[in-house]
Amino acid sequence: MSAPTLSKSKATPPSHGRPGSDRPDFAREEFVRSVRRNLSAHGFLIGAVLCFSFFSWYPMVREFILAFQKNENGKTTWAGWSNLTYIFNDPAFWQAWRNTLLFTGLALLLGFVVPFVVAVVLNEFRHGQGYLRLLVYLPVMLPPVASVLLFKYFYDPGYGLFNRILETFGLPAQQWLQDTDTAMLSVVIAATWMSMGGATLIYLAALQGIPGELYEAAELDGAGILRKIWHVTIPQTRLILSLMLLMQIIATMQVFTEPFLLTNGAGPEGSTTTVVYLIYQYAFNFNNYGSAAALGLVLLVLLAGFSAVYVRLSRGSED
Asked: Which of 26, 101, 233, 311 is the most core-located residue (most Cβ within 10 A)?
């Protein structure tokens, strides 16, 4: 018998990896699939960037250009530094800055301290904390205009709730929004009530992240409530406190809705005229868009500088 002959064809080695990866068109299909996936991702990203550019970056660039222009008889010409010179020589400019800084200072005393104290108190409750959080956050869910008009009713010198309370205790009624001494404080109280809910919940979340062992160690050392807050609570929430401080300063420096609705913007003898309201006056009452843009540019540069200093100090403290 003749010996069996061996086949001259070589055995095909088994394919490794994904099934079908030995096909010639596999690389092309994988490439097309990757392109489609990246196109959809970049499509969403480009849409977000375009919206942000149109509604945020373009107004800032347009404001910067408009600050050095003037419009007379429908013709736009370059004005150089004249718009900035005009606002710096306007007495209302300095009054608006004084009022804005006063509002910011009062808002920090109330709007920054009060939410933190409320959060500390809520953190001590072991039952019904969810309902209390809802109660504190409820003013934030109300429309800002409705909240301001509610406080305008409370401040009414004739039938307002606050004067009724004062009369109950035998105290004289106050001209809350009509008196130069109380107008700005009244605006600050309304603004604090409207916005304290969000800050309180942020502080409460930070407080609940503090390890309980730290408080137990402080109690063993004989620390009371105030000492535990000073030596444990504040150091452990320093990052959140500093961030909220920056955000509140930026927000209060741009206050507009509360004084505009409560005191018609200017208030008695201009006591509640803020920088943003002065921008509104320049643009829509005086049709001086160049000066309005120049004042907005000054506010932008000031807040940007303050934010840069804050970031620099924060990095220095972390190092």
From this structure: 233
CA 204 to chain centre: 18
User: Bridge partners of 72?
Assistant: 75
CA torsion 307→290→264→266, rounded to 10°?
70
Is the per-residue pLDDT at 9 higher than 80? no
pTM: 0.79
CB 136 within 8 A of CB 122: yes
Q: Characterise 17 by phi-psi region: left (phi > 0), alpha (psi -120 to 50), beta (else).
A: left
H helix intervals, the chain = 26-52, 58-66, 82-88, 91-107, 113-123, 129-141, 144-154, 161-168, 183-208, 212-220, 225-228, 234-236, 238-252, 257-262, 275-280, 289-318
DSSP state of 222: T
Give, in order, the Cα–Cα distances in Å from 164 to each of 150, 237, 246, 297, 302: 15, 40, 37, 44, 42
User: What average pLDDT score do residues 68-83 get?
Assistant: 83
Tokens of 84: 């900035």
Site of tokens 């809520």 = 122
Indicate the pLDDT class of residue 319, thresholds 50, 70 and 90. Answer: low
Supply φ then ψ for residue 124, to 5 degrees: -80, -15
Which tokens go with 15? Answer: 């394919």
Tokens representing residue 13 in the block: 């080695």
